[in-house]
C-alpha cells in the first residue's frame, strides 16, 4: 500500500474466486501454498498468468515466487521503477461485501478513510490496548482471518499503529488457541461470538486460561448478554465491550467505551461519525427506544462499490447517509442496540451467507420443485442456514441427500444445517420469497 498498490483481500476458498479476481482486475496475488490449488484453478479458468507470490519457506509449486526472495532480492535494479504518488482520495483497499442477491461487491476505501478509522480508534476513550514502549508491549492473538475486514483493518492494521505483538494462528483450533492465551500471557483480544461462547461455556476452558486477559472487544455478529456474563464469571477483571461495523465502514464504526459495562449495547459512534434510526416505511428519523433502519454518515465510510453505480444509488441517500440494512435503536444515553437485520443475509460466525446462492444450488437438484433458505439461531455460530423444500410431486427425498448435495459444493460456513419439507414457499406478488413469514410459521 505504501508503494501505491491497491490491496484486495479474498477468502481463498471462495466458491467463485475467478469472478472476484476478474472484478478487481487483479495484477498479482500474495497467498500461501495451502490456498494455491484454488488460485491455480481460477487462473486456469481465466486463461491468465499472474504473478503468484507465496509466503511459505518450504518447497513451492513451479512458476510461483517465494515471498522472502521477492522482498529481499538485492539484485533488482530499482532505478528503472516509476515512482508512484498517492493522495488521500486514492483507493487503498478493496475488500468484498456480499449483497442479498449473492453477487459480491468490491468496497472502495480510500487512504483517508483507512487513516481516519485508525485515528478514531486511538481515542483514549475507546482504545483497547496500551501503546508499546521501550519496556512494554501488549500481546494479542491473531486468530481472526485477515481476509475479513475485522481481521485486516480492525485487528492487524489498527494494532500496528500502537506496536502490539500479534501472535498469528493459522486457523482456530481450541487447544492451540488456549495454549496461545497462556503461553504468551495475552492481555487483550478481538473476538467474534463463537470464540466468546467457547471461552464461556466449554468445560475445557478454566479461569487459568483467562487470567492474563484485561480486555476483549467482540464484533462481526450479535452476542447475547448472558454469554458475556458466563465469560466474566471466569474472570471479573476483563473489560468487555461489543462493537458494530460493516465492510463499508472500514470495519468498526460503533464501539463501547473503556468505562462501559452495558454489554447488551454495541456502544457509541467513533470520532465524528453520525448514526440515525429511520422508520422502515417513511424513512423519517426516529427517537430513543424506537426501532428502525440504522443509517450512518461520516469519514470512515467507503466511497462506494467498485464500478457498481446501481448498488451505490441503492445504498446511499442523496445527503450522504449509508443505509446499513440493519435494524436497531438507541436509548436515552445514546447507546446503540442491534435488534434485527433488514437484509436477508445470514451471519455465520461473522461471515455473510447469501440465501439466494444456496437456493440456486438447491433448485438444481432434480427432486426439488421450490425452496427457500432462512437463518435460524445457532448457539455456536450465531446463525445457520436452514432449507425449506417443496419436493416434486410423488418424489421422496431423504434430507441427508439434499444436505450432501449442497454442502459438498460450498465452503464450510455456508453449509445448510437443517432441511424441512413444506407444501409451498410463501411469496409476494412479485415472486419474492417472504422469509419473515417462513420464520413466523416454522421457526
From TrEMBL:
Residues 357-432 form the AMP-binding enzyme C-terminal domain. The keyword Electron transport does not apply. The keyword Metal-binding does not apply. The lineage of its organism: Eukaryota, Metazoa, Ecdysozoa, Arthropoda, Hexapoda. One of its GO terms (molecular function) is long-chain fatty acid-CoA ligase activity. InterPro entries: AMP-bd_C, AMP-bd_C_sf, AMP-binding_CS, AMP-dep_synth/lig_dom. SUPFAM superfamilies: Acetyl-CoA synthetase-like. Keywords: Peroxisome. Pfam families: AMP-binding, AMP-binding_C. GO terms for cellular component: peroxisome. Residues 17-306 form the AMP-dependent synthetase/ligase domain. This is Uncharacterized protein. PROSITE patterns: AMP_BINDING. It is found in: Peroxisome. It comes from Pieris macdunnoughi.
